[in-house]
Amino acid sequence: MSSVSRGTEKTEVRLRWDPSPWGRPPHHLDIIAATYSADAPYGRPVYVVHTESRSPDGTINMSRHSETGQGFGFVEVMVLELDRLASSFARVVVGVAIHQNTGPKTFGDLSNAGVLVVEGYTELLKDDFAGVADSTATTVAEFTRDASGAWAFHGLIQGFDSDPVLFASEMGSAAQP
Asked: pLDDT tier at 3 (50, 70, 90 boundaries)?
């Protein structure tokens, strides 16, 4: 048995929010993950995973998706198998964006919204978006690979005022060195 830590290996990002009030357009949120190469960890994403999509190699995928928030508990879940991600990747940033197609909405407009990042039974991050109440999108987690190949988790709650498409291109600017 080895005592060497392999770091963060397989995580889930879980999202919850209450449906909009009766007769109102639905609140639609998405978990978004962007991958960055070792050559440009703060450059353009190599690829972005969102809305029932998955990474080309199957290491990042949506296992549950909601367009309304209806259901019990966490209604949207993304699984990240970092231990299987190619060595050419050095950074993954995960965020949440609110669709703006039915009018402007911020996290403060939602009720019972929250995100939970877990590895197995261990909670890595739990947040209710209160700190980004005026934002339409937020990063929630950053995973970075060290020289040994181990992945480290960093909580990264940072609000943006973007729709999901723009957010996917700018979320990697969070936490630049």
From this structure: very low
